[in-house]
């Protein structure tokens, strides 16, 4: 017997459940945390907004390991110009097994996965894991999406490779 998941998706639109001042970058704090608090004390989720119908599930292509290289691709660009790949942190760590990394995207070569943006100097490219635990390509105080090798029409699907390298 196959079980079906019952899912209800609400577009949160009722601003009286948000913080009074909403920043453009911290919706987790300004919208989702207050809404979650209301739900935790018994408010119904349906009163938080409108029902979302006709959802489309967009499959994320899986990265491929071939010839000692983990190959993935850019699947989206976030609002800050970071390139979000389809390569999850757990996949990179399993592939590297504590070895050093060499990440290549176009002409950009990054030799180490960093923890935070300020681990590199301003304007330097870096790789790090975002809040969704996918590998991201970023530029400290800049936008990776604006690097010369990329154009808005070609960046999605751009190949990203992770290789083991000697330190």
Structural summary, described in words:
Strands 3, 4, 5, 6, 7, 8, 9, 10 and 11 form a 9-stranded mixed beta sheet that branches. The chain has a two-stranded antiparallel ribbon with strand order 1-2. The protein has helices at residues 27-40, 89-96; strands spanning 10-12, 49-51, 64-66, 69-77, 83-88, 100-105, 108-110, 113-114, 125-129, 134-139, 159-165. The chain has 2 domains: 10-51, no CATH class; 64-165, Bacterial fluorinating enzyme like (Elongation Factor Tu (Ef-tu), domain 3), CATH 2.40.30. It is 13% helix and 32% strand. The model has no long low-confidence stretch (mean pLDDT 89). The chain is of the alpha+beta class. The radius of gyration is 19 Å and the shape is elongated. The termini are far apart.
Summing up helix and strand content along with how strands pair, one would put the structural category as alpha+beta
User: What is the CATH C level class of the largest domain, in words?
Assistant: Mainly Beta
Fraction in helix: 10-25%
Low-confidence runs of at least 5 consecutive residues: none
Total number of helices: 2
What is the CA-CA span between the terminal residues?
52 Å
Number of domains: 2
What's the CATH topology name of the largest domain? Elongation Factor Tu (Ef-tu), domain 3
CATH architecture label name of the largest domain: Beta Barrel
Give the biggest beta sheet.
9 strands, mixed
Corresponding CATH superfamily of the largest domain: Bacterial fluorinating enzyme like
Strand content: 25-35%
| Cα-based radius of gyration, to the nearest Å | 19 Å
Quaternary state, please?
single chain
On the 0-100 scale, what is the average pLDDT? 89
Shape: elongated
């Amino acid at each position: 017997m196959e079980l079906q998941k019952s899912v209800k998706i609400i577009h949160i639109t009722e601003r009286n459940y948000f913080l009074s001042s909403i920043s453009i970058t911290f919706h987790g704090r300004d919208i989702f945390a207050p809404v979650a608090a209301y739900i935790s004390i018994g408010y119904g989720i349906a009163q938080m907004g409108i029902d979302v119908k006709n959802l489309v599930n967009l499959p994320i292509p899986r990265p491929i390991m071939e010839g000692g290289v983990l190959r993935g691709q850019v699947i989206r660009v976030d609002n800050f110009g970071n390139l979000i790949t389809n390569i999850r942190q757990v996949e990179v760590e399993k592939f590297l097994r504590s070895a050093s990394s060499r990440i290549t995207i176009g002409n950009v070569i990054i030799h180490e996965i960093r923890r935070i943006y300020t681990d590199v100097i301003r304007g330097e490219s870096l790789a790090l894991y975002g809040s969704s635990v996918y590998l991201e390509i970023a530029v400290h105080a800049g936008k990776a999406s604006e690097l010369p090798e990329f154009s808005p029409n070609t960046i999605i699907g751009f190949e990203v490779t992770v290789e083991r390298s000697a330190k």
